[in-house]
Design goal:
By secondary structure, this protein is mainly alpha-helical. It has five helices and two strands; from the N terminus they run αβααβαα. The chain has a single domain, classed as Four Helix Bundle (Hemerythrin (Met), subunit A), CATH 1.20.120. The protein has a two-stranded antiparallel sheet with strand order 1-2. Helix 2 packs parallel to helix 4 and helix 4 runs antiparallel to helix 5. The longest helix is centred in the N-terminal third of the chain and has 30 residues.
């Protein structure tokens, strides 16, 4: 369980790094006239992601969940792959990436990197990670609970984002 605890703590540190990047990017976007949308769903998202990490630590310990190699190793690969996709999204969007929905006026949608293939690749990575990370150590209740709550919250988030992007001023033709 020690290596799994270390893994979850490293993911927690990664989340803190994301929040630092997001805070810097929020300031940049707002300074350029960006408009924030859906502010109300951000705190529940932070709470849900925090609960995921806590569940990953608590469930295996309290419920005596074993490490099952046939499940744990593939889930570890998926969880690490999800992290790679998340940071690919962050790198692709640069200062436009955020944990909040902020639309910059007059900027086109990004269509490179993982956005060439998926409209919301970061959310796909979150879905994979939310199931895979707990299952590395057989925390199936945490994986199921996060997946169900996240499905609802992502529905809210994606509708908010799509509405915000649809309402953005079109980019002038060149």
């Amino acid at each position: 369980m020690t290596w799994y605890t270390l893994l979850v703590l490293l993911v927690g540190a990664e989340r803190l790094a994301e929040l630092v990047v997001a805070r810097r990017n929020t300031a940049w976007c707002l300074a350029l006239g960006g408009t924030e949308h859906g502010r109300g769903h951000h705190p529940p998202m932070v709470l849900l992601h925090t609960a995921l990490l806590l569940g990953c630590l608590l469930e295996p310990a309290v419920a005596d969940r074993p490490f099952v190699p046939a499940l744990g190793w593939p889930m570890l690969v998926l969880a690490l792959g999800a992290q790679a996709v998340r940071w690919w999204c962050i790198a692709t969007l640069g200062p436009r990436w955020n944990t909040r929905v902020i639309v910059l006026p007059g900027t086109p949608l990004v269509a490179r990197g993982p956005y060439r293939w998926l409209r919301h690749p970061n959310y796909a990575a979150v879905v994979v990670e939310g199931a895979a990370l707990p299952l590395v150590h057989s925390a199936w209740a945490t994986a199921l609970g996060f997946t169900l709550l996240n499905a609802f919250l992502l529905g809210v988030r994606i509708r908010c984002e799509e509405n915000a992007l649809a309402g953005a001023a079109p980019v002038p033709a060149r």
